[in-house]
Amino acid sequence: MAEASQYVEHARDGDVHVLRIANAPVNTLRTEVRAGLLDGLKAAGGAKAVVIIGSGRNFSAGAEMTEFGKPRVPPSLTDVFDAIEASPVPVVAAIHGNALGGGLELALACHARVAAPGAQVGLPEVKRGFVPGAGGTQRLPRLIGLDALKIIVGGEPVSAEQAVKLGFIDAVVEGPLEKGAVEWARANAGRSFTLARNRNDKIAGYDAAAFDAAVKPLTARTRGQESPLGCVEAVRAAFTMPFEEGLKVERDQFQRLVSGEQSQALRHIFFGEREAQRVPDLPADAKPLTVNKLVVIGGGTMGGGIAMSAANFGLPVTIVETSEEALERGLKRCEANWERTVKSGRLSQAEYEKRRALLSGSTDFEKAVGEADLVIEAVFENMEVKKEVFARLDKAARPGVVLASNTSTLDIDGIASATKRPELVIGMHFFSPANVMRLLENVRGSATNATAIATATEVGKRIGKLPVLVGNCDGFVGNRMTGKRGPQVEKLLLEGCLPQDIDRVMEGYGMAMGPLATGDLAGLDIGAAVRKARGTVAPIADAVVTAGRLGQKTSKGYYDYDENRKRMPSKEVEQIILDTAEKMQVRRRKIEDQEILERLLLPMVNEGARILEEGVAYRPIDIDVIFTNGFGWPAFRGGPMFWADRMGLKAVRDKLAHYAEVTGDRNLQPCALIEKLAAEGGSFASLKRAA
Ligand code: NAI
């Protein structure tokens, strides 16, 4: 173990002893910090009060998650908390930046808490698939009653100011925090503090009905997830059991969940989202260009959403359109969207006006583009149109400015060839609705240089996106992989399923929406047009479109829709399916849920492996992050490559080979990488480590 004293600094300010957690960058509570706090409390003898504060940007982001699953090294957080609670003088937590998870639990074990303005406090454990494990579920309800449910089950942090109102922070201290906290501790040292564990006023008179009513809205949208329910049970114990017994319930829930598959999946995605944003082969000196003005070409569905994202995050943006009418339509759509958010109470009028002021429009292409620090093109999906636009952009934009395209299928090199600056051309593939979806696939062409990549990454992050760099190929990563699912959907319908069977299985797995309902939402004519262009057929899908069932926009697609867009199974579609099967002489059979799941997910895994072979994605985790952020794949399932690893690549290989044979779909032939890893007993995760 490294020296505990390096991780907790001591200072004496008159009669107040200060302990500073010094574990950059976020002060996780690693073993040395815990030991340092314990030593520090012993060394504080004679002081009138003790202040615990974080150095750097944070109080503490909580437990050191890399210590999970390893043998526990004492002292535990509970040992530290016991020492705090046994202290003869008050121990005051002084919070700035974030106090999250174990960080907040440490503060809750103290006699009192003060915070800098704007500090964020919360218990996000539920989002990593477990429950707070160091008394948070027992102490917080004792301080604030049922309001604790929202913080613990919801997992969203609150500001210090809100925490004061709720009653679990004693005061917000203006000015330098350490000085203010020391003064506060000195002034209040004589007070008698009741430790959270000894408070009973807020948990008295447990009312099961009121408790369940408070839980209901918090678990309404966490279908299939275990950790919110674990949190509920732990908090319930705070209301129904003595403190020590409640702690036991919490500990049991923590241990059960933290070693479970969902938590491993959620942590895989949590760390993966950080990793995916690091581009491995970018030279260390690659610098993003300064972008103070974004220009978006095309104010349609995507252009409008991209422009809104920029304005939402304070980046001035101009939409360029071909006519005043189209421009007005585009700007109006953005306004209407923001106004809806204001109406729902999620955006203040003042913030709306600030955002609206950052958004402008122009029909003067040359002038607007001449003022751009970065251009993102979102015009029609047609190579000739894109080339024309890029040739014009190249002339109008200042030298050195990056030109990005939001194309969802077209070849970035083809687009770049229309310019004299192919090294500064890059794909920035947003997902619809672009102002909401977090995923951004940045697509590297063969000439794209480090400056263009660094700029697209930086601007993506700045406007609230999660940029993942991918290679240039048809469909890039996400759409290319989901594209392989389509033929199996068609085959499953033919062989025995109805749309609702397939969607039920996928939604039961946790997908936001099944593939057929998703098709209805996007419009079935889009897929039909792609099949026509590629010269492929899908007898059932084609027959559904021919029957005028284009999806939600015609109130009928694979499903019938009522006026509230509620979907209902369709008799007409069932008949189309039965007729097509008969015509093709397919004997329909009952298909088990497991087969449905495997036949939809395995083709994606196989294509994902090909994508890794080709280097279109750098790492398996990049693929998992793409799916959990842009394709409705539940984070608690960890993404397609994580799913495959759990199944074991040998089983994946065997099942793919089996389905390739029985369905005659050669796309399901296990690719070379899967063959290799299966033979070696390897996994996608091992691939990452070897790289
Ligand atoms: P859209 O048809 O809604 O919008 C295109 C807009 O571009 C129209 O308003 C049109 O007036 C304008 N436009 C056309 N030529 C122009 C020019 N020379 N100068 C200025 N404006 C021009 O199309 P949408 O859906 O927004 O798609 C745009 C791009 O985004 C396409 O490349 C598409 O593949 C891609 N994309 C679309 C997604 C979607 O779900 N709709 C998802 C991801 C990417």
UniProtKB/TrEMBL annotation:
Keywords: Fatty acid metabolism, Isomerase, Lipid degradation, Lipid metabolism, Lyase, Multifunctional enzyme, NAD, Oxidoreductase, Peroxisome. It comes from the Bacteria. Its main location: other. The keyword Magnesium does not apply. The keyword Zinc does not apply. One of its GO terms (molecular function) is isomerase activity. It catalyses: a (3S)-3-hydroxyacyl-CoA + NAD(+) = a 3-oxoacyl-CoA + NADH + H(+). It is found in: Peroxisome. GO terms for biological process: fatty acid beta-oxidation. Residues 294-472 form the 3-hydroxyacyl-CoA dehydrogenase NAD binding domain. Pathway: Lipid metabolism; fatty acid beta-oxidation. Residues 475-561, 596-681 form the 3-hydroxyacyl-CoA dehydrogenase C-terminal domain. Belongs to the enoyl-CoA hydratase/isomerase family. In the N-terminal section; belongs to the enoyl-CoA hydratase/isomerase family. Monomer. This is Short chain enoyl-CoA hydratase /3-hydroxyacyl-CoA dehydrogenase.
